[in-house]
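Sequence in, structure out.
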Amino acid sequence: MADQLISANHAAAMAAAMAGNANRSARGFCAGLYPITPSTECMEYLCVAELSKGQVVRVESEHSAMGVCIGAAAAGARTFTTTSSNGLAYMAENVYVAALMRLPVVMVAANRALGPPWNLWADHGDSLMLRDSGWIQIYCADNQEVFDSVLMAYRIAEDKRILLPVMVCQEGFILSHSMAETNIASQEEVDGYLPTLDLPHRLRDDARTMGGVDTPAVTEAHRAQHHAAMSNFFEVYGEAQDEFERKFGRRPPDLLVPYKLEDAEAVLISMGTISSNVDCIVDEARLRGVKVGSIRVRGYRPFPELQLKELLRGIGRVGVLDRDISLGFGGALWGEARGVAEPGAISQGYILGVGGGDVRPKHIEALLEDLLKRDSATAPIVMETNL
């Protein structure tokens, strides 16, 4: 292993190429790619990567990029794509197809606000619009997590108990284009971590049908199987963590990352890069005697409800920070977390950083102050942080 100063886009491409090369003794690797800011750099790095067996297919649209992954995965290849924002929206039909066909595609989404009006900056709304598509969703806080999560995604997606696609989410520009020291595994180490892919239902020489018509009863059965596979994720993720630590000497974060919760009376829940600022404010508040902690949500789908419920036990004030807005409702993360808090707890939603707005310490300080003085919760508060 060696440390390299690289962007998260570069880290994601390196991990995908290594994962592809680890499948060279089986059906190889295939990536369907189409550029869109801020994920384009990841695509460009992958286009020049050395692949032992397989190819990168440059297509005319994001819809076709996922179509290539669907075809290659159905043939038993290890597959990858990357996109962002409206590209992910254009891909949406095939995003569902990949999930419902139980194909272990891995995609890196460089989170960016949806338009119009056009906006190039970070916002979780693009990936969260597909939260019910049947994909596992993991949200990263730094470049190292992006590299590690892509490798883990293949091990999880291809596990026979799962056989589902995985979306690794990184915030556009904040991570995708920011350089950070990242520990890169060797190809030999990746070979040892990732078994070759043997997709049980891949297309072979005998006649098979994929994507046919289901009767209502069969659809119900398929959805039940899909839901059960999603429920297996928590066990499989833990096993993937354990093996990652054995192979690479570091342990990827849990699906929920608690910070200073031992005696906390209030907690701030967030997702992605906002969490690092939250932890700094927790430290400062602790110096003033405020008993506050934080929880970073790394795994959003399936949502770790039982684990979060345990972490929130006995905590009376819960502030949920969303870098997205479900229009007419509030933040998507708040919608999940508020029902998990202790009965009678004040669960307040705060929406900030939408469309790439700066999330500074003063903004988190302000919402913490608001949370601590509340007698009850209100509708989620949209904070215009750039004004």
